[in-house]
Amino acid sequence: MGKVPFSRVIRINFKTTLRMKDLILTVVIFSLIGLFSVYGIATFPSSYSKNVWDALLVSFAGPPLSSDSLFNFVFWFLPYLIFFYLFGNIAEEELSQRGVSVIPLIGSRRKWWLGKTVTLFILSIIYVVISIVIILVVSSFFLPLSNQISPFLLSGTLQYIPEGITVVILIKWVFLLYLSTLFALSFIQMAFSVIWRNSFTALILVSAVMILSWLFGIGHSYIVRWLPGSQSMLIRHTFFDSSVYSFSLSFSLIYNAVIVLIILAVSSVYIRRMDIFKKISEIHKEA
Amino acid sequence: MKEKNETNEKPVVFLKNVTKVIRRRTILDDISFQVPYSKIYGLTGPNGSGKSMLLRAICGLIYTTKGSVSVFGKEVGKDVEFPDKTGVLIEKPGFLTYLSGMRNLELLASIRNEIGKEEIREVIKLVGLDPNDKRPVRAYSTGMIQRLGLAQALMEHPELLLLDEPTSNLDRQGIASIHNLIKDLNSNGTTIILTSPNEKELEHICDRIFWIENGHLEQEPMQM
Questions:
Q1: Of B100, B127, B157, which residue sits at a domain end?
Q2: Can you give the pTM of this predicted structure?
Q3: Which ipTM was obtained for this model?
Q4: B63 and A CB contact within 8 Å
Q5: Are B75 and B115 contained in the same domain?
């Protein structure tokens, strides 16, 4: 029996994971988020001209340090929740339904797990790119396109914007923070869903982490950078809010990378000696 | 009991003092057991006795707490993670419910890429299903899903077949056809271990039957 190439494992993961309804739900959710952002910007009284980049910042800014607005929180949290719901359980779902067939065919528990991890990372990239593109497309129907940050955004009326920021810098911040946080948190969810053999409990865990991080972060400029999930809140970074202590883009990326490495190490040890059952209840029956 | 020529080859399956403990409860208790080439061995016993768990240990789905399992001369969990040339039907088979049976098997076969569509169609026919049936698996009866699971276990031409209650959820005609299929496969050299809570069912097709209860295997085969 030849070894199964890793690229084939990834390809089959995509064939069995991606469904049209997932894409439709993603498009609908980000269209609504884009429309909300456009509405907020369009109705904001200002004499400065506005453009599509305003909508991008508003959509991905996250709740400000001092904000306890539930709306701001939900607006930031919803895209994560949708991703967790759609893709955070890809490993547990397969393990509980088809793991008995699929993993022996792949021939290695660790290759199966690494395949799921890489698939989740690629899905995170696709999700982030789709969400940015949809928000720009939706907002382009109502706001002018431009290759520069709008005078409205630069005026600081809506939010403090550092000098020298360009469209490329804004996209870099949004893409890197959103992607790294999304992957780190969904990887936590995927690992615990397999360890606990329960995708719902893992979804609750990761959602609770984000809710608590938001709540504990409010007004706490010294601890906010240490709270998991806060790394995707652009305007809680020192670059945008000078009252926040030492919260840089590099810090966030390293923080998320450390989470990923810890989860990868812990999960690899678990997966290597994992007993494969369809449902944990099956083993309880015999135990 | 039917007669077969005993071979001097190494046993296909060799279990030595296998113990499995889960949550401080002993599920398999010091089981030693071997299955020679081209035999059909049956395992019977009450529900929860450890029959399925023993098959899981043989095919590498679970690690043993003590002892060793060897299949085709290779120790499972040490030399190989999962034994080669082994087809498994264990637990209620799981498939992607929105795809047809044929499409499900195509996806599973594409992992190793060793067989083509025509072979998949043949094996689906062999278990009494229609490869042209476009209905999603969610529309299948429990018996049809069981047959599809059997097709999946057979499709890559295994030399060892582990079947956990393969005739559950089938009607009398279905049971007879699966029994015939098992006998045909065995006559072509496939070694088979199957379980059933129904001892009488095993008597029809097995060379030897072992009783298992509370994780303990009776070392003497049952009288047939």
A1: B157
A2: 0.91
A3: 0.90
A4: yes
A5: no
- Name the domain boundary from B118, B136, B157: B157
Chain A residues close to B92, C-beta within 8 Å: 278
Q: Residue ranges per domain, chain A?
A: 6-286
B88 in reach of chain A (CB within 8 A):
yes
A276 and B61 within 8 Å at the Cβ level: the answer is yes
Q: Are residues B108 and B169 in the same domain?
A: no
CB contact under 8 A, A277 and B91: yes
Together in a domain, B123 and B179:
no
What are the tens digits of pLDDT across the range B4-26?
444 446 799 999 999 999 888 89
B18-71 per-position pLDDT tens digit: 999 988 889 999 999 999 999 999 999 998 889 999 999 999 999 999 999 999
A101 in B contact zone (CB under 8 Å): yes
| Site from A92, A100, A272, A282 to mutate, B interface, most B CB atoms within 10 angstroms | A100
3-state SS string over chain B?
CCCCCCCCCCCCEEEEEEEEEECCEEEEEEEEEEECCCCEEEEECCCCCCHHHHHHHHCCCCCCCEEEEEECCEEECCCECCCCCEEEECCCCCCCCCCEHHHHHHHHHHHHCCCCHHHHHHHHHHCCCCCCCCCEHHHCCHHHHHHHHHHHHHCCCCCEEEEECCCCCCCHHHHHHHHHHHHHHHHCCCEEEEECCCHHHHHHHCCEEEEEECCEECCCCCCC
Residues 158-197 of A with CB under 8 A from B: none
Q: Are residues B60 and B105 in the same domain?
A: no
Chain B residues within an 8 Å CB radius of A101: 88, 93-94, 108, 152
Domain boundaries, position B149: 92-157
pLDDT of residue B169: 80
Q: Do B19 and B71 share a domain, yes or no?
A: yes
CATH of the domain at B79: 3.40.50.300
Give the closest-approach CA distance of B3 to chain A in angstroms.
Answer: 32
Domain count across chain B: 2
